[in-house]
Amino acid sequence: MTRKYFGTDGIRGRVGEGPISADFMLRLGNAYGHALRASVKSEGDWRKPMVIIGKDTRISNYMFEAALEAGLVAAGVDVELMGPMPTPAVSHMTRSLRADGGIVISASHNPHHDNGIKFFSAEGEKLDDATELAIEAALEHPFRTVASEQLGKAVRTRDAIGRYVEACKNSVSRQFDLDGMRIVVDCANGATYQVGPMVLRELGARVEAIGTEPNGLNINDGVGSTHPEALAARVRETGAELGIAFDGDGDRVLFVDGGGNIVDGDGLIYILARDWQKSGRLRGPVVGTLMTNYGLERAFDDAGIAFVRAKVGDRYVHQALVEGKGILGGEASGHLLCLDRASTGDGIVSALQVLEVLKRTGVSLREALAGLARVPQKTVNVRLVNGARPTEAATVQAALAEAQTAVSGRGRAFLRPSGTEPVVRVTVEADDDALMQATLDKLADAVRAAAAH
Asked: Would you please indicate which residues are annotated as catalytic (active-site) residues?
C-alpha cells in the first residue's frame, strides 16, 4: 500500500498547508490514540495507554502540541509533555518511562515555516511502514471521544532535561572526561540549546555555545549542521580545538576541526569504525546509504570492514543494521546510529562517541581522518512536471548504464526520485573530477530530455 501522509521521516510540510495544520493534528492525535488503545486491548491489557510528546523550538509547536494532546486525551490516552527537547530524548524517555509511544513535533533541519511529526514505538524506535499504514487507516474514521470516565490526562514530565543529560553521559565510560578541551557548540537555535552545552560542560569541556537563543523563528537560520560555516568561523576566531554542530531537532551532528574544516557524517563514521574495529567493539557491517561517498566504501574495503548501503533515510539504515546485527551506520548529513548506545540517531550521543575516540587515542580530528580519501561527488536535481517519470524511460536507463560503465571501479552513478519534492536527483562520483563532471552532465541531460516529454 502507498502511504498518503508519511514520507521518509514522518509527516512533514509547510505550516498551515495539508496535514501540517491544527485540525489535522487534532485528528492525527485521536487516530493514533485509538490505534494504541486497540493495540493494548489486543494484548489483553486493559490499562490506559501513555504517550510522550516532545518538540523543537519552532513557534508553530505551541499550536500542534495542544492539538495532538487534545486528540490523544479524547481517545483515552494519558500524555506527558516534555517541552523543547531533542528528538532522541523523546526516544529515550519513551523507553525510560515505559510509555506506549512517543511523538516529536519537528521539521528537523528545515526552516521555521515547516513542521512535521515523527512517531516512536514503545522501544524508542521509528515506526515501521506497517504501523504507519495502520495510523493512516485510523485517520479514515471520524473523530471519536471516549466516555468521560475513560478520558486521558496530560502532565508535564518532571526533570526531563536532567534525565536526558544523565543518559547522554552514561553513553561513555565513567573515566571519560574532556578535561578543559575548548569546544564551540552550535545548537541551531533548536532543541539542543539547553542540553547540548550542559552535557559537554558536565564532562569537563570549556564550551562556547552559539545558536542557543531560540525565538520560534530562527531555528536552523544561518546556524546548525545545515550551515556549519558559522561554526567554522567561530572555531577559527576562538582557537578552539574543535566545533560541534547539531541540527534543529538534535538527531544530526557535524564536526569542525581546529582549522575550520568541516567533517561530515561520512568522516565521523570512518573515525568510529576504524577505532571500534581495533578495540573489538564493532559488530556486523557498517551501514551507509546510496549517498555515502565512494571513498568511504573504498577505505572500509582496504581496512577489511564490511559495508552495505541502504536507501536514504535513517529508518532504512536502522533496518539494515538490525538485519545485519550491526551497531554503526549513518548518513553524510550527520545522522549517525550507534545502536549499542542509543536506539535511534542521537546527535549528542554520537558526538560523545567521537570525542571519546579522540581523547583516548590522543589524536586530533584531522589526524583521525588519515586514510580516508573522498572522491568528488555531485548531485543535480531535475525538476518534474505533470507527473513525469523519466527514470522509467528506456533512454534514461541506457544513459544510466553507460554512466555506470564509465565510472566502474572508480565511483558510482545513480538516480533517486525525491520522496519530498517533484525532482529526480542525479548523482555521479568518481576519483577524477573531469570524469565525474562529464558523466554527470551527460546523464542529467538524458533525464531532462525524458522529463520534458
From this structure: 108
